[in-house]
Specification:
single chain; alpha+beta; Alpha-D-Glucose-1,6-Bisphosphate, Chain A, domain 4; seven-stranded antiparallel beta sheet; globular
Length: 154
Amino acid sequence: MPTIIIELEIQAPVELCFDLARSIDIHAQSTSQTKERAVGGVTQGFIELGQSVTWEAVHFGIRQRLTAKITEMEYPHRFVDEQVQGAFKGFWHSHSFIPVGDGTRMIDTFIYEAPLGVLGRIADVLFLRRYMHNFLLTRNLYIKQAAEKFFAIE
């Protein structure tokens, strides 16, 4: 299955980075380019272990819904969300936070399977992997910026 790994160094504490990454509100702000919004499950605040959220967004010009559930959580170092229902055949998404000096290394690992069998695998090679990498990178850079801005204020 395709895997995307994104690592960023953030000049902010692990706890702050962890909380921003699991914030429904920050997620919606970081994905404004796809008009993403929470429409079911946890729709604001912090998502917790065992909870789910349904996102509605526009990808590739098509309005879609995706439900993800938090299946693992080790505060403040790691949490995992997995697709319950949505466009992918499935995905597993790990968010890890490692203290490094005065900051945090955030590691985002996204393992997925495209839908539609052979057609999905072709789409993955042609555009899906690049699209998902850019989508996740944009989200992670938003978290980095928010964390560093907030931490600088304190």
